Amino acid sequence: MTKQLNLLAVFGLALVLAGCTAPEPTSPSSSSPTAAAEPTSGSDYAIPDVAAECVDGTVTVVDDSSNVTIDGDCENVVIEASNSMVTVTGSVVNLSFESSITLVTAPAVEYVTFVEGANGNKVATPSVPVVDDGGEGNVVSAE
C-alpha cells in the first residue's frame, strides 16, 4: 500500500511539473501580425440597429444590446438600455442613465445624470457637461 501511495505521489508531482514548463522561445523573424478574428461559424447573432425618435422633447432608449441612433436634437434622452451603443446626431440638454454599460456619443450635452446603480457607462462628447454621478465607473470624455 505504501508503494502505491509513493507511486501516486511521484505521478502527481510529475503532472504538476509538466504544467509548469516554460514555452519554447520563438525567433523574432518567425512572428507575423495577428489577423483580425473571424466571426464564429454557426453564430447567427447580429447586433440590431434601432432608430429611436424624440417625441415632444424626450426619447427613452430601452433596447438592450443594440446600436441605437437618435437623429437630431432632443432635450431629454433617458437611457434604460444596458450593453448598448447610442448615437445622437444633435444636441442633448439632459442625458440620464438608469442602466449600465452603455456608450452614448453626442456632439453636445449640457447635463448628464447617472442614477444610483447606473454603472460602467460612458458619454463621448466634445462639450463639457455638468455631471451628477450616483453610480460607479462612469466616464464622460471628449472624443
Structure commentary:
By secondary structure, this protein is mainly beta. The chain is built from one helix and eleven strands, in the order αβββββββββββ. It has one helix at 2-19, and strands at residues 49-52, 58-61, 67-70, 74-79, 85-88, 91-97, 103-105, 108-114, 122-124, 130-133, 139-141. It has a six-stranded parallel β-sheet with strand order 1-3-5-7-9-11, with no helix packed on it. A five-stranded parallel β-sheet has the order 2-4-6-8-10, with no helix packed on it. Residues 1-36 have low confidence and may be disordered.
Descriptive terms for the model:
globular; about 140 residues; mainly beta; disordered N terminus; five-stranded parallel sheet; about 35% strand; six-stranded parallel sheet; single chain
Largest sheet properties: 6 strands, parallel
| Dominant shape | globular
Query: What letter string, H or E per element, gives the SSE order?
Result: HEEEEEEEEEEE
Structural class: mainly beta
Mean pLDDT, all residues:
81
Residue share in helices? 10-25%
Contiguous runs where pLDDT drops below 50 for at least 5 residues: 1-36
Strand order of the largest sheet: 1-3-5-7-9-11
What gap, in angstroms, lies between the N and C termini? 70 Å
Strand segment tally = 11
Radius of gyration: 25 Å
How large is the share of residues in beta strands? Answer: 25-35%
Number of distinct helices? 1
